[in-house]
Amino acid sequence: MRFRLPGRRDDVPAGGGAPAAPRVPAGSSAAAGPRPAAHAGTGPPPATDGAPAPTLTGEGGAGDPRAADHDATVAPAPGWRRGERARSAARTLAIASAQLLLISAALVVIGWVFGKLWVVLLPVILGLLFATVLWPPTRFLRRHGWPPALAAAVVLLAFLGLIGGLIAVIAPQVADQVTELADQAADGLEQVQQWLQGPPFNIDEEQIGQYVDQAIDSVQSNASNIASYAATGATAVGNGLLNLVLALLLAFFFIKDGPRWVPWLAAQTGPEAAPHVAALSQKTWSTLSEFIKQQALVGFVDALFIGVGLWIFDVPLVIPLAVLTFFGAFIPIIGAFVAGAFAVLIALVDEGFTVALIIFGIVLLVQQIEGNVLQPIIQGRGFNLHAAVVILAVTAGSSLAGIVGAFLSVPVAALIAVIYRYGRDVFDGRHPEVAGDGTHTQVTGDDEGAVLTRAPGTPG
Q1: Measured distance CA(34)–CA(206) in Å, rounded
Q2: What is the pLDDT along the chain (460 residues), one digit of tens a residue?
């Protein structure tokens, strides 16, 4: 497209107007006259000598004597810096893309390393979780003059005795009532068979038998796969018990020597990083401890009210279901749903549809009170994760590491949130290493050892 200024006649076709104006020689006085300043804007050039600003026209535009082939463009004229800014934006995008690729590659490598070291990391993580539970009574004994090793051993043995006693109470009830539930489940299957034989399905007994035979044949044809799955499950149970034993041993050392960890780590990092190391270690430990306390309280409330509802309606396995509900609370949202489904299923098998519907209402009511009343009150004292973040964390953890991943997903997400918020506050200059009383942690000591002390003001 060609653009011309009005009044310029040197491009008018033959027979279409006045002849073109003569060109001025380069050395003439007219050519040597003053020239207007260069126009750097994106619009039309400014008017000179009081004349109106010229209007740009194109082929087919205003003032063009020829027939219009197309309309003049309505897009604004390009600015002089458009290309420069486009190159700058492309350069910034390329740098950001390269940084994102490097970060993604680093995360992949870190995930691969964690996967290879998961056999070692899992007992450590479980040991830390056990230590958060066992540290308060151990600290109480140590403050009353008990040696660290003795206090840790007594608390750990008491914890094992509590777990063993709980299993001793639950196991006989499960063994006594499982047979009865199996018989009731068989009766329930017969009732389902009779229901299918009636309207609206009208499936006769021969067809049901064929379906049962097909199911049996499918199981027999996959017997080898089922056996391999059983062997894999037995191996997983064995590994789980081994990890549990290692976690308990590590928990003993954590509660015995744990107070030495932060001073040692802070002393390795230097005086400038020491306040941040100490503050971040304290925040992560407090968050982990708060998570265990919160979920234990929520699990106790859920187990109490659901257990009372099961006991009132004479549903079997009250204590095992209450214990399952308590431990299910440590997998937020998903755990409570699974535990409630087990309770409803057993009520359906033992007491019928009406009681199962009532139990379902009780479970739903308890979970609504927990989610809308109890959780907001409790979480006000600790960390706060959105429900969507919790669901995504549990889903990702379960897909990566099964039940253990679902159990560890929420505390890991909470720790990531704590680290992120701490780094954000550091970048904003808010000094998160300074405590509420205006003091910060510093490392002092000599060649004999380092200790942490509190100093007023911000670290220099």
Answers
A1: 109
A2: 444 444 444 444 444 444 444 444 444 444 444 444 444 444 445 544 555 555 545 555 555 555 555 555 667 777 788 888 999 999 999 999 999 999 999 999 998 998 899 888 889 988 998 999 899 999 999 999 999 999 999 999 999 999 888 888 887 877 777 676 666 666 666 666 676 666 776 676 677 677 766 776 776 666 666 666 666 666 777 777 888 889 999 999 999 988 888 888 888 887 788 888 888 888 888 888 888 888 888 888 888 888 898 899 888 888 888 888 888 887 766 777 788 888 888 888 777 778 888 989 998 888 888 767 776 666 555 556 777 787 888 888 888 887 788 888 888 888 888 899 899 988 888 888 888 778 878 777 777 777 778 788 787 6
State the Cα–Cα distance between residues 98 and 79, nearest whole angstrom: 30
Same domain, 308 and 392: yes
28: how many CB neighbours lie within 10 A of its CB? 10
The answer as to whether 280 is a domain residue is yes
DSSP state of 260: G
37 assigned to some structural domain: no
Q: Are 239 and 175 members of one domain?
A: yes
Last residue of a domain, one of 249, 265, 281: 265
d(CA 353, CA 317): 18
- The total of other beta-carbon atoms located within 10 Å of residue 299's CB is 22
Q: Looking at the domain assignment, is residue 434 inside a domain? A: yes
Nearest to 7 by CA among 57, 44, 45, 43: 57
Give CB contacts under 8 A, 24+ apart, made by 228-234: none
- Burial code (b: 16+ CB inside 10 Å, e: under 16) for 198-226 equals eeeeeeeeeeeeeeeeeeeeeeeeeeeee
Is 311 contained in some domain?
yes
- Domain identity same for 441 and 370: yes
Number of domains observed in the structure of the chain:
2
| pTM across the whole model | 0.66
Asked if residues 236 and 228 have their Cβ atoms less than 8 Å apart, the reply is: no
Q: Looking at the structure, do residues 259 and 385 belong to the same domain, yes or no? A: no
Structural domain span for residue 287: 270-460
